[in-house]
Each structure stands twice: as structure tokens, then as C-alpha cells.
Amino acid sequence: MTYLVGENLTGGYGSGPSILNGCNISVDKGEIAVIVGPNGAGKSTAMKSFLGLLNLKEGKVTLDGKDITHLAPQARIGEGIAFVPQTENVFVSMTVEENLEMGAFLRTDDYQDTMGQIYDLFPILKEKRYQLAGQLSGGQRQQVAVGRAMMTKPTVLLLDEPTAGVSPIVMDELFDRILEVKSTGMAVLMVEQNARQALEIADRGYVLVMGENKHTGSGQALLADPIVRKSFLGG
Ligand SMILES: Nc1ncnc2c1ncn2[C@@H]1O[C@H](COP(=O)(O)OP(=O)(O)OP(=O)(O)O)[C@@H](O)[C@H]1O
Fold it and tell me: What is the pTM of this model?
């Protein structure tokens, strides 16, 4: 049984047209799943359906076999889902460490161990822990955002375009860090514009087009597929 499953996801916004048209997306613990596709394909909307921010007309979302389709976003956090938005995802006027502490806001237990694990995963954050997050580079801020999300000790990490706006070198570094996060046993689901690079590290890849699964396979299989390469990866 796959850990997080979105099955036949169907729905849109208000009375508007359907944006998701029966797509299937899933990710297991210790895996990275990547959603790619053209602008407007419904990638972010699919992410919202896992977060509980979209009213599905059809389909369901299960976590560890439990149906969470009708759970509110707050309740899903309690079930182990954490989300890192694309932008404005750190408190710029707080230090790195204060940002991590904010992530533990709802925890009543001792979170020092978790903070230590996050510093092991992201050594640059330990080095800069007393600096203001607003003074960090884009790639470092993204690490703060991911670290903060991990302070809730989630089992699933949802990332919305974690490498948006960073240089190719920083992108590689971020993907390396995300591989490290995966190796802790986390299920990682992300939307990415940098499709080729993201598929390189994807255990599961989903090419969405008009809210449907156009191509599905391991990242390597999709990268090797001539049709995917020609249509979605620039040849
Ligand atoms: N809050 C909203 N209300 C109404 N329509 C929306 C809303 N958010 C997105 N849409 C529409 O849903 C469609 C899919 O958008 P979505 O952001 O999911 O696509 P995407 O694949 O993530 O695209 P991009 O790569 O451009 O971010 C688009 O036509 C968009 O205009």
C-alpha cells in the first residue's frame, strides 16, 4: 500500500471548469515524487488537493490507508503532512533558529533532537543559525523553509517549486538536500518547473496535462522516453 495516494482527483475552483480531470498521484515513504507539466496543467491545484485546499468533486486522498479526503488542512498537518510554499516561506526578520522554533510552535515535547537532525541535514543552517533569515541567499532560505516544515516531524513533505528562482548550482545543491531528506524515510512530493533536473532524482514522475496523467513512470524512464523529451523537456 502506497503511503500517500491521490486517486481519480477531479475538481476545480468554485463554479469554474474542472482543473483536475481524474489524475492519480502517489508517493511512498522514502521516495521522491515529482509533478511536472506545462503552465496551467493543474500541478499546484493537485498539490492543493493533498493539502485540503481544494473541494474535490470526485476522487479521494488516503494517507497510510486512511481516507483523509474530507479532513481540513489543519487536521492533515496533525496526520503528518507538511507543506512548503513557493515564496514568502520564511520569517525574514527572525533568525534561522527562530524560524525553526516557529515550526515547532505546536509541539509540547522537547524538539531539540529534531532541530539537531535538521542541522545535520542542512549544515549551512547550523552555521548561520543566529543570522536573520532575510540575510540569507535564496537557496539557503529554501533550506530554512524545508527545515521549518520538518520541525513538525512530518511523514510527508509537500514542496511547491523549491528551486524557483535559484541558480543552476544552487538548484543542484537543493536537490541534493532533498535527496538527504528522502533518505530519512520521508515521503516527498514536489511540483517543479525544472523538470529535467527534478526527474533525475524522482522515484515517481508525473507529467500532467490539462489535469490528466499524460505520462507516468520513474524519473529515469520519463527522461528516457523520446516523446516526453520532445514534448516536455526541450528535446
Ligand atoms: N484560486 C484559483 N481560482 C480560480 N482559478 C485558479 C485558481 N488557481 C489556479 N486557477 C486556475 O487553474 C488552472 C491550473 O492552475 P495551476 O496553478 O494548478 O497550474 P500549474 O500547472 O501549477 O501552472 P504553473 O506552472 O503556471 O504554476 C489555471 O487555469 C489557473 O488559472
Answer: 0.95
